[in-house]
Fold each of these.
Amino acid sequence: MEGPVMLEIKNISKTFAPKTVNEVRALQQVSLQISKGSFTGVIGTNGSGKSTLLNAIAGNFELDRGSVVLDGQNITRWPEFKRAKLIGRVFQNPFAGSAAGMSIAENIVMAMRRGRGWSLRTAVTSSERREMAEKVHSLKMGLEDRLDNPIGNLSGGQRQALTLLMATWLKPKLLLLDEHTAALDPKSAAKVAELTSKIIAEEKLTALMVTHSMQQAVDLPGRIIMMHRGQVVEDFRDEMKQRVRVPDLIRVFERVQKMELFDQSVAEMLEQQYV
Ligand SMILES: Nc1ncnc2c1ncn2[C@@H]1O[C@H](COP(=O)(O)OP(=O)(O)O)[C@@H](O)[C@H]1O
Ligand SMILES: [Mg+2]
C-alpha cells in the first residue's frame, strides 16, 4: 500500500544552547519515514519541536546526530540553500515567502529559475509569461491581471497563495508547510488550505504540514504524527488514521501530559528521598 520512501529521518537530535541554563532538547532521537506522494500532518503542543523538525529537514542548522536522506540522497551535510532546490517551504508569516517591493511576476521568475544560476537578469519570455498567467489564474484570486503590481500591495491570503504557488513551481521532492494558514483570517485560511490540498493532489507532492488545528489534521487525507518534547509520541496512519477523531487526539495529548507529570513527581519524590 505504501509507496517507496521519499524522506528518511534516522535518529536525529538537536539541543539548543547545550550545557547552559537555556538548554532545550528540541529534537530527541527522532526517526521517521515518509512515503513518496504521501501527506503527513504534524501536531503537538507549543514548543514540542514541530518547527524544529521541519527546520532540521530544510537544513537551518547542523544536527547533533542522526541523518536525513531525501529520495535516496544523504543530505545531512548539505547547506540550506542546496536543499532549497529540492524542498519547497511555506511559513506562517505571509510576508516571509516573497519580496514585497518586487512585482508578482518578478517574484515568480525567481521561483521559476531557482537553482538555474544567475539568469534573473534575462527578460521574461512570452512563454514564461503565459505559464505564469495561467498558474496565477488557477488560484482564482483575480491576480493574473496584476502580475506587474508589487506583491506588498496584496492581502496576507493572496501572498500566502502566491508563496504556495512559488514553493511548488518546480515540483519539489518535499513540501514543508509550517502553520501556513495560522496567521490568516478564517476565510483566507480556508481558501489557502483548499489551494494547498488541490496543488498537492494535482502535482502528487510529498508534503509535511504542521498545523495547530487538530480538526484540520483529522479532515486531511494521510497520516498524523504527534510531537511532544522533541519526540514523535504518536503516529496515526492507514486504518487508525481513518478512525481517529479530534476527541481521540485530545485524549492522547492528555495521556502524554499525565505521563510526564507522573515522571516528574516520581523524579521529585526520588530526589527528596536522597537529599
Ligand atoms: N534557534 C533556536 N534557538 C534556541 N531555541 C530554539 C530555537 N528554535 C527552537 N527553539 C526551542 O526549541 C523548542 C521547540 O521549538 P519549536 O520547534 O519552534 O516548537 P513548535 O514549533 O512545536 O512550537 C522550544 O523550546 C523553542 O524555544
Ligand atoms: Mg512552530
Amino acid sequence: MASLGFEKLLHTQELDTKLSQLAHAKAHHPLAAKIAEIKAHAAGVATNVESEREHRHGLEREQKRLDDEIAMIDAKRSDIEAKLYDGSITATKDLLAMQEESKNLAARKTRMEDTELEIMEQAESLQVVLDKAQSEIDADEAKIAELQAELADALIALDAETEAATAERAETVADVPPDLLVAYEDLVYSQGGIVVARLAGGACQACHLNLSAVAIDKIGKMGEDAVAHCPQCGAILVH
Ligand SMILES: [Zn+2]
C-alpha cells in the first residue's frame, strides 16, 4: 500500500483532470456554438431583408413618380377640356387638334395606371417576402434568448463544480509532501497528460509498458515515501 501522500497525489491528478475538463466545457460549450450558428442565420436573413427593403423603396419611388405624372396629365386635360368648351377657340382645325391631344393624354394615363398596378402587385409580393423574413428573424431572436438563458444556467453549474473541485484540490494537496507536489507540477508543466500512475503487475499504468525486473527490484527496495519515476515515460510511480 502506497503512502497517503502518493494516494493524495493520485487524487490531485484526478481533480486536475476534472478541472481542465470543466475549463474546456466552459470555453467550448455546445450551446454557445448553437447560439453563434443562429446569430449567423439571423444576420444572413437581415442582409437579405436589407436588399429587399431597398427594392421596395425603389418601387415606392417609381409609384410616386407615376402618381405625379398622372396628376400632371389630369391637370393638362382639364385645361384642354376647359378651353374646348369656353368658346375661346373657334377654328375647327385647332379644336380637332386639342381633342386629339386630350385623347392621347387619356391613353397615356391608362398605360401609366397599368404600370402602376403592376408595381403595386410587385410591392405586395415583396411585402410577403419581407414579412416572412422578419418572422424568421423574430424566431431566431427568441431562440437565442432561450439558449442564452440555458447557457447561463449551465455555466453557473460548471462554475459551482469548478469551485468545489478547486476547494477539494486545496484540501487534497495539503496532505501531499511539498517535494512530491513540486515533482508532480514540474511534470504537468513539462509534459502534461498522466504524470502520476500506479505500478501494477510490473507495468506503469501511465504508459502501460512493463518495467524490467531490475527496475522493479530497485523500486521495491526504496522507502515508501521515495519518489520513483517510470524509466519509459517519466511518470511518478505509486508503488
Ligand atoms: Zn510509464
Amino acid sequence: MGQGGGPAPAGLPAPPGTSFASDNAAGVLPEVIDALAAANHGSALAYGADPWTARAAALVGGVLGRPDAEVAFCWGGTGANVVGLQCLLRPWEAVICPDTAHIHVDECGAPERFTGCKLLAVPTPDGKLRPEQIEPFLAVVGDEHHVQPRVVSITQSTESGTLYRPEEVAGLAEVAHGNGLHLHLDGARLANAAAALGADVASFTADAGVDVLTFGATKAGAMYGEAVVFLRPELGRDVRFVRKQAAQLPSKMRFVAAQFEALLADGLWVRAAAHANAMAARLAERLAGAPGVVVTRRPEVNAVFVRLPSAAAVADLQAWSFVWAWDVARHEVRAMTSFATTDADVDAFAAGLAAIAARHL
Ligand SMILES: Cc1ncc(COP(=O)(O)O)c(C=O)c1O
C-alpha cells in the first residue's frame, strides 16, 4: 500500500516516513504539545481574558516591532484572512491580489461571502504582485459603476514558494497608501519567509508598510490557531465583533495563546521553519540532473515544484508517496517540507521520485 492509499507501483523503495503533500501534513512540535499540557491546569477566564493570551499578544506585537498592535487570535487561516479583510472593507469595495492567492483559490469563496466584496485577481509569473499591477484598477476610483479597490493582498511566503524582499513589500505599500488602499499580508508561512530572508519579521511587514496581516502558527508547528494583527490599531477597532460573527472567537483561547508563546518565546518558529526550508533545498539538490525530472524553480522556502515526464508518472508518484498536482497540464507537482522532515525522508523521496520518472521516459 502506498501513502496515496492505493497500491504502490511495484519495485520501488519504501516511501519516506513523512509526507511531502503539505506542511499541514506534519504533526505538532513537541514544545507546543508541552505548552498545551502546561496550560491545562486550573481555570482561566474564556474568550481571551486570560494571562496566556495577554503574554502571547505581547510576543506577537514584539516580534513585529509594534507593541501597540491589535492582535486577535483565531481558529484558522481562512478565518483569520476573512476577519482581517472584513475589518478593512465595505461591500462595494474590492481586494487586488495575485490569481494564485489562497484567499482567491483555496478558501471556497469565504472572503467574498463574508466581506461581500469582489476579489480582483491578477496573473503573475511567480505568485508575486507588482506595484504596476495595482495601477490599472485605480482608473475607476470614484466611479459608482465599478467596485472600488480598497485592499491589496499579498502572501508571504507565496503560494508559489517565492518571497517578497522588504523593498518589494515597501513598493506595494507605497502605491497602495498613495491611493488610499490598505496592504494586507497573508502570513500563513511568515516563519518560512523570516527564516529564508534571515531578516527581522518587522522589516518585511510593519516597517515595509503592511497594515494588517495573518500571523501563521499552524504551518510553523502549532496544532491550530492563527492571529490577525492590525499594525495600525485603528483599523482593528471592530475586530472583536467581526471575529465573533465570523465564528473565529475561540472560547478556551489560552490554548491557542499557549501555542504562540511556545513558538515565539525563543525563536522556535523561525528555527523550525529554517529546517523546513533546508529540507526543500536538499530535495532540489537531490533531484538535480535526474532523468525526466525538472525542478521548475529554485526553492526559496519549503516548497519544491517538480515536473515529471507524464500524467502516468504523476499518478505513480501519488500512489507511492502522495503530493498534490500543481499544474496538471505540465505534469508538475508540489512537494512540501516541514519541521518534521528528515534528511532520510528527503533522500528516500528523491530516490523514489527519480525512479518513477525514469520508468516513464
Ligand atoms: C497561503 C495560505 N493562507 C492561508 C492558509 C490557511 O488555511 P486554513 O484555513 O486551512 O488554516 C493556508 C493553508 O494552506 C495557506 O497556504
Amino acid sequence: METKTFGDKKIIIRKPIKSDAKNLKKFQVFINSLVEEEAMILMNEKTTLKQEKEYVDSMLKSARNKSKIYLVAEHDNKIVGNASVELEKWRTSHVGEFAIAIADGYRGVGLGNHLMSEVIELAKKELKPKPKIIRLRVYSDNIPAIGLYKKMGFKIVARIPKQIQYEGRLFDEFIMLKFL
Ligand SMILES: CC(C)(COP(=O)(O)OP(=O)(O)OC[C@H]1O[C@@H](n2cnc3c(N)ncnc32)[C@H](O)[C@@H]1OP(=O)(O)O)[C@@H](O)C(=O)NCCC(=O)NCCS
C-alpha cells in the first residue's frame, strides 16, 4: 500500500483486501458512476450489490491464485480508480489482459499513468506464469486512453470495425499490445 499525491489529493494505492468483500457499496458506487457518465468502457449497465459481491469475490480469488493483479485507488474512503492485468488461459496464458478506469474528477493528474505502470510491474513480478505480452482493447475514439497507452509503450496492432455500441453508433475497436 502507498499514499501518493495527485493534483491536491492524497490517494491510497493498494491491492484488494479481504474486508473489501464487506464494503461492496463503494466498489458499486465507483463502477456505476462510470456507467452513469457513459464513460468509454465496455460496461453500460449498472451493477447490483449481488453482482458486485461476485465480482469482488472473484477478484480476491484470482489475486490468491496469481492469475490476476488488481490495484485500487482510494480517496476519502471512496474508490476513485482501478487497474488490472488478468492472465488468459491455456495456450494464451502468456498474455495478460489490461483494464483501467479513473473516476471523473480524478483524471488528467497522472493517476492513470501511475496505476498503469504499477500494475504492469506487479504483473511481471507476481503473476504465474509471468506474462510476456500485455493486451488491451480500446474504443478507437478514446483519445485520452490511447494517449496513455501509447505513452506506456503500447502499439496498435489491429483495428476491428464496428465492435462497440456507443451513443447510437458503432465504433471501431483497437487492439493494443506491449511486449514485456
Ligand atoms: C483513460 C484514463 C484511464 C486516463 O487516466 P488519467 O489518470 O486521466 O491519465 P493521466 O493523467 O495519468 O495521463 C496520462 C496520459 O494520458 C493521456 N491523456 C490523459 N488525458 C488526456 C486527454 N484528456 N486528452 C489527451 N490525452 C490524455 C496523455 O498522454 C497523458 O500524458 P501527459 O499528461 O504526459 O500528456 C481515464 O481518462 C479514464 O479512466 N477514463 C474513463 C474510462 C476509460 O476510458 N477507461 C479506458 C477504457 S479502455
